[in-house]
């Protein structure tokens, strides 16, 4: 009888079980968040480095037709950014660098060269995009040319809804117009948490 009583005293209560389950859930949630923020950043930066190296090799082999998914390299000196510009804006492309909207112009060409990238997670290439001001430099380099853009509309001054596709027009907001200059559009999340709003930056080609 006493042995049964002693063993009963050590049996965990329902409250202790609930607390242990909650602690386990918190630990799992923290691990998921940590991977989303830091783990995906680490993996995307590694993938970006590989994409940059593959692009360098492809350009050296055939500058006119390098092949592969990377079409250029974008550099923003004031943000310390250098990233591969990869075809497409799906998760696979954005996980390797900056994504290029394939329905828009190529770098340096008349029209709208439009790209997208994460503000947080997956390398966070545009984490500090809102710090850019009018006149700041953005450089885009393909296998044969280097294009120098200057910011004309900072991301801190323009917010749109995620479905506002006018920013991708050849002449943004004027789909009926024929472009006579080369501009660049960058889109990224407005907030550090998922939302339906996007920050948008416009830049104009200065020299090439």
TrEMBL record:
Pfam families attached to this UniProt entry: Sortase
Keyword list, A-Z: Hydrolase, Membrane, Transmembrane, Transmembrane helix
SUPFAM superfamilies (alphabetical): Sortase (SSF63817)
Transmembrane segments: 12-38
Record-level Gene Ontology MF annotations: hydrolase activity
This protein's record includes keyword tRNA-binding: no
Name of the protein: Sortase A
Taxonomic placement: Bacteria, Bacillati, Actinomycetota, Actinomycetes, Propionibacteriales
């Amino acid at each position: 009888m006493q042995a049964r009583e002693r063993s009963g005293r050590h049996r965990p209560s329902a409250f202790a079980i609930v607390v242990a389950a909650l602690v386990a859930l918190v630990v799992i949630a923290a691990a998921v968040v940590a991977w989303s923020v830091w783990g995906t950043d680490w993996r995307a930066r590694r993938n970006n480095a590989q994409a940059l190296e593959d692009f360098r090799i492809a350009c050296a082999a055939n500058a006119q037709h390098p092949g592969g998914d990377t079409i250029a390299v974008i550099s923003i000196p004031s943000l310390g950014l250098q990233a591969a510009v990869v075809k497409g804006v799906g998760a696979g492309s954005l996980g390797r660098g900056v994504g290029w909207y394939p329905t828009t112009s190529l770098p340096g060409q008349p029209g709208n060269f439009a790209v997208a990238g994460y503000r947080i997670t997956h390398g966070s290439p545009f984490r500090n995009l809102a710090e850019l001001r009018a006149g700041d430099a953005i450089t885009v380099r393909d296998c044969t040319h280097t294009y120098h853009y200057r910011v004309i509309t900072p991301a801190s001054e323009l917010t749109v809804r995620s479905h506002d596709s006018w920013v991708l027009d050849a002449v943004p907001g004027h789909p009926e117009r024929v472009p006579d200059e080369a501009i660049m559009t960058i889109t990224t999340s407005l907030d550090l948490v998922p939302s339906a709003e996007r920050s948008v930056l416009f830049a104009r080609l200065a020299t090439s």
